[in-house]
Structure formats: C-alpha cells, structure tokens
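Example complex used in Figure S2.
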Amino acid sequence: MKPAPFRYADPGSLDEALDVLVAEGEGAKVLAGGQSLIPLLSMRLAAPATLVDINRVPGLDAVEATGDGVRVGALVRHRALLHDGAAARVQPLLARATANVAHPAIRNRGTTVGSIAHADPSGEMTSVLALTDGAVTVATPSGRSVVGWRDLFVGPLETSLHGPAVVVDAFFPALAPRSGTAFAEVSRRKGDYAVCGAGVVVTLDADRRVERVRASYISVGLVPEVHDLTEAVHGAPADSADWAAAGELARTLVDPDGDLHASADYRRLLVGVLTERTLAEAATEALERTAA
Ligand SMILES: Cc1cc2nc3c(=O)[nH]c(=O)nc-3n(C[C@H](O)[C@H](O)[C@H](O)COP(=O)(O)OP(=O)(O)OC[C@H]3O[C@@H](n4cnc5c(N)ncnc54)[C@H](O)[C@@H]3O)c2cc1C
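Predicted assembly (292 residues):
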C-alpha cells in the first residue's frame, strides 16, 4: 500500500521545526530516520497530516561521551552509535544493544533517539535507557526539559510527550565502577525484532562479591521495566555466584504476554535462561574491570 497524502516540511532549524509543529497541530509528526514511521504510513496504520522532517536541523548529530555518561543527539544513526568507541567505553551497553537493532540497512538510517521516541517495548534502546537510568531532553515552544525514562514511557508506542515537541537527545549515564554489562536476545532470524531479550548490569564490592544486580527485558512487558535481582546472589563471590537462582527470581518478576511469535510461558523461560547467561558474562566483565 501507499501512504495517505500528507504535507511535508523540512525546517532548517529547531525553532523552525517547532513553529511548523505548532502551526500544524495534532496532525503533525516528527520524521527522523523514517524506519518505523514510514512503514506505519505505508500500511496506513498512521496517517499524519504533516511530516516535519528534522534531518536538516543542525547540531543534532553528535555523540558526546564524558565521564558522566553518553549524550546521543536526535540525528545519530544506530550505526554511528554502534561504532563509537568512546561511547562504548563509557557505557558498554550502548554498542552491545545497538548491535541487535534490526539489519544494517535499517541501522544506517534509523536513529537511536527515534527508537526511544517510538517507545516500542520490543526495541532494544528503550530498555537500555531504562537500565542505565537515562533521560531525554525535550524541546518545546516554551523551552527545554529533561524527562526521565520512568516518566517517558506510558504504554506500547506511547510516550508522555504531547503537543509540539522534539526530543533533541538521549542521555545514558556511565557504567558505575566495578560493574559489568551484557546483552543477549533470541529472535527468529538475526536482525528481526527479539522474541525476548535481556540486558543486565552487575556491580561488585571491593572484595569482588556481588553488590547489585539489575536486569531489563525486551518484548516482555508493555513498557520498559528494571528488575532488581540482587537478593538472589547478594554477597556471593562474583566468579561462583548462583546465576541460575537470579534467573529463577527474574522469571517470577516478569509478566509476559503470548502472541503470534511466542507463548507467554516460552518468553518466561527465555527470561530465566537469558538472565543466567548474561549475568555470568557481566560478572566476568565486572571482575576484569575491578582488577584493572
Ligand atoms: C524491518 C525492520 C526491522 C526493525 N527491527 C528493529 C529491532 O530489532 N529493534 C528496534 O529497536 N528497532 C527495529 N526497527 C525500527 C528501527 O530501529 C527504527 O529506526 C527506530 O525504531 C525509529 O527510529 P527512526 O529514526 O527511524 O524514527 P522514525 O521512523 O522517523 O520515527 C519513529 C517515531 O518516533 C517519532 N520521533 C522520531 N524522532 C523523534 C524526535 N527526535 N522527537 C520526537 N519524536 C520523534 C516519530 O514522530 C515517530 O512517531 C526495525 C525497523 C524495520 C523496518
């Protein structure tokens, strides 16, 4: 199918983009990489009156990695983030998760911020924003504000942003000292949306024992959630902790739905398996980083 007719604007500045969004009202939508929005239009699952293409807006295409974290501009493509060494050093989950986003052609065009604004519970980067306790910066005609992930995600494909608003960047805090991360997912074919995925962070104490364990899953809930699994392994030596027990705990905490791709029971099973596997990997990395 072809999209329903729409008006198109490609403003050359953020102010101009906001002006168009105000003028066009509720019927207008921001267009970034188009890798989610254009298929929705083509299938006539969305029919915005106007697309406001932000690709000509300057200053939105930078990745800034500092000791505090990584700031990813609204026009940074998945591919650019995947290959950004400085960002990967500050927050390794970014490259690990981005490697699982779609196929190369989609990563070349799709943006990480667009993925977050799209709020798909099957998306890797919504989950990573949650797991890192991140936030987005939102520009509106009345100024800029920072919206934390808990306040951002309202439901599947739904955020708390309404009216004329452009997400200008997403901020992912740095990985804490003595911590390691891992990310893994199961999909029918490489690059497909995951049937289930897991991202984890393990933090050790100065004696190399487990201090804190957190996990976030994709394609499991309606919005991203972070689960604290510490109680299953707290105080255990990092090289011999019972990660299976943490996997068991995770299975009791999630409430997945079944659909065409997988039953709820299968998803719950995958949560346990992926949790155990990724935690062992993250603990190894945490040990290396503690020794370094
Ligand atoms: C075949 C296929 C497979 C895919 N597989 C995966 C996958 O495995 N994992 C995954 O996470 N994604 C996947 N995607 C989606 C892809 O990652 C998209 O790039 C991403 O979800 C959206 O980014 P975009 O820049 O293309 O956004 P667009 O498609 O341009 O926009 C998506 C939505 O976000 C809004 N939006 C975008 N940017 C902004 C902004 N700066 N401010 C306010 N609103 C904004 C738009 O208005 C729209 O509602 C897949 C897509 C396809 C076509």
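Residues 7-53 form a domain with the Uridine Diphospho-n-acetylenolpyruvylglucosamine Reductase; domain 2 fold (CATH 3.30.43.10). DSSP finds eleven helices and 14 strands in the chain.
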